[in-house]
## 1
Amino acid sequence: MSLRKRLLNAPQIWLQRHAQVALASLGQLTRNHLSSLMTCSVIGIALALPVGLHVMLGNLQSISGTWDSGASISLFLKQQIRDDQATSLAEKLRLHQRIEDVELITREKALAEFQALSGYADALEALDSNPLPALLIIQPKADFTTAETAQLLVRELKLLPEAEIVQLDLQWVRRLQAITVIAQRAVVVLAALLGMAVLLIIGNTIRLEIQNRRTEIEITKLIGATNAFIRRPFLYTGFWYGLFGGIIAWLLVAISITLLSGPIAQLANLYQSAFDLSSLGISTVLTLLLGSALLGLIGSWLAVGRHLNAIEPS
Amino acid sequence: MPCLKTTHKVNIPLIHFDNVSKRYPGGHTGLSNVSLRIEAEEMVFLTGHSGAGKSTLLKLIGLLERSSAGQVHVNDRNLTRLKNRQIPYHRRDVGMIFQDHRLLHDRTVFDNVALPLIVSGLGHKETGRRVRAALDKVGLLHKEKSPPITLSGGEQQRVGIARAVVSKPPLVLADEPTGNLDPALSQEIMELFSQFNQVGVTLLIASHDIDLIKRMQKRVLTLSKGQLTGDTIGKSIHVP
């Protein structure tokens, strides 16, 4: 073959070889499918933990986020206030300059909802009078939703003769958000630690692989293989371990979310909100797969660098 | 068909040892002060008792070991100065054959023979063509899809030979290639070597089978306790 033709063919041959090695190392993994599956599962479980927590936190944030913007004030009226009095109070408050909207939950409606959702329907029927007070859910105007301004409104509302309890549902939302930020940090730390664990798992697996194939490495070196050539299949093996580990992590998280979404929808229903547990977004999945494949590559690179040079033919 | 990859000028030997010594860590001496020249297209036997330094000499040529003193030149390369990362490219020009064949038992005969070509990055089609030619030469084309373990000792050795010559190296080294074979099979292997030599391959064959060597009527180097004690042709070998 002429030099010119060889040079022209070189990139094509290079690609061909890489594809071949990638497929061959994949084939090797499927031949030892049980041990490969176990290694990938360990990686998958290690990765599923931070990813799962990340998704949960994402959900928590989206909930608390909607709560924050809609920081509302609950005004529970005294027991003796009748529904028609409550209605007129609601009308009055709607005209208030700092109030955007008022939702009235009459005693009747509160009882009906409580019966439908709590499961204490029978117990409630045994009572001869409605124990629930009427409730006004007050939505402050946009300018008055900050903690201080909302607090002013609360103080004003507390002075109403009809008011029993006035609650601003903001403080705990703030606390929850602070906790979420801490939890997020914790997830990053956890992800870093487990990422390191994955590196070690893959490194160790590749080290064993290198030992198992010691003869093959020696013979290939005898025949004139460069270190890069010998390294390649191990790097691909690490890559596949990482990628399949990532896929398993994805599946584990997706299954967990599916299992949780039912009960969570029910819980959200109890809080009268239609909350859908959001699953893994496409960008999260891509990051997971890319990251895990990269971890696999780095893990095997470290192992190969340490152990391959030690093997020389004799 | 193997042929010369590089044309050598007549006055430059293919292998040149200049006062070469090899001491192993621990004090054992493999070779001491060996000087020799092997011209291109020669077929040379290397003999001597076990431990006389035959394997050491071959290992120095294939750079499996490095010399402790002296200069080793092979294929116009000064091996003493060759950097570690250049070793693979040197080995591609030296076909090596071993007593224990050193085949990969999880691959077919074809894949074993193809290995040197794959290592040097030859294209798929060309690889297939050359592997079949080499297997045809050693008479094992019909076994290309078999795993080596199903082959007899003589057949496995011939696979090893096909692997050593498939990339058409100018030099082939063989360390006790007939060590495990009966006389008839050994003779067959030697005839194969002669054929390669006739098309220009330089061969250096270590063997302690004196009778076989005598029959071949070629140059014989004798090693004894790490020193070169004889350089003769054919029948007049004397192993002290």
## 2
Amino acid sequence: MRRQLIPAAIATLFVLAIQLVVFSGLRFAGVVIMFVWLWPVAMGLAGYSVLALLVGLGAGVFFDLHSVTPFGLTAAVGMILGYATSRLGREGVGDLDSAAWWVAPLIAAGAGFVAPLGYTFAGFFAIDFQLWRGSVLAMMVVNATAFFILSRPVIRVARSIGRLGEGAIR
Amino acid sequence: MAFDRKRRRTWTYSVSFLVLLVALYMSGGIVANLRRVANVVVAPFSWSVSEIARPIGHILAGAVNYSDVVAQNQKLRYELGIAELHANEAWSLERQLSEMTTKLNLPFIGALPTVAAQVTSLSPTNFSASITISKGLKQGVLVGMPVVANGGLVGIVISSGPNASTVRLITDVNSSIGATFGNGSSSLIISGNGLNNGLGATSVPLSDNVAPGTVFSTDGLNGSLYPPGLPIATVSKATLTPGAATFDLTLKPTADLRNLTYVDVLLWEPST
């Protein structure tokens, strides 16, 4: 477990840095691509449930500390996405080697599509009823497209980190 | 659902940890420290990513946008010339107005001290419209101070560290501002609709005679979060509310919030 955790933590910090430096500044149709959500999705699709949960939590908490939105929502959504995709990943659905090339990107796109909606609904639990007033549909479409395009290389990175301690944690 | 023990334990620990963090965060006392720690941890990674990404971004932007940059530069030079001319003309008028408002015991923006600050980052997420600026408590920037730039109100300081502050933009969905127009006889509330959707106001009486192009400014009523007279937005569309004798207004911020580089923080605090 330790063999995977340290590289996963370092990779998560790099993911966060890429999010803050690159993606948060690059707005497509005014929308920020949430790379911090793609990372747990990729880890989940690679089949690593525990790691997906942990990187979703870590990336989300650090991201929330850089944002003025209700604290913990990004982390909660990241964890749920990571776990949900890991259920598919563990069944081999979306495996990069055996499944069709578009399966993993399509699942990631689905995750990217529902993530902003999930965040908006999660806002109700944080007693923030204003989040839906943003361009939620635009966020869903842009993130789904971005997740579709970026998922395969990110899953490869996630898989290479997961394989560092294959069998120890899965 | 078949949870194995390890995943169940990870779920439990993760959720407990998150709930604990949220509770600590909401208690308020350790927020600044948590943010500082997060910044310190992420800073080296951000620096290395930035060092790699910036030259690539510059090459791409330079290749794609060169002609736009040249045209923009020419336009800016022209606008600077006009602005300097207007500034010279306005100087004497401003002094007169300042003197008059002082006599009437009203605050006036021209008389308020300001702190110029650089915008260091934009909101990293889709769900808030905010910016981080390079000045904080050490320079006298406090929570609640209004921020202006590019010819209008930009937002309000919502958190302040030693050398940095976070400003909630007027377009944020949690922003609402008391506004007035014309002779100041009527007031309304302008709300943010998200960074990409500008501003809006609902249930404006037909008798107010609001038309596209009307400029709204802060009303500065007693207890207001802003001093009076700060330009907020211009009406871009007025639609009749279905089934009611009122307008719904779509407004465009007076300040160009998409191109903020420098802002001025007004060293003004709301009266209690």
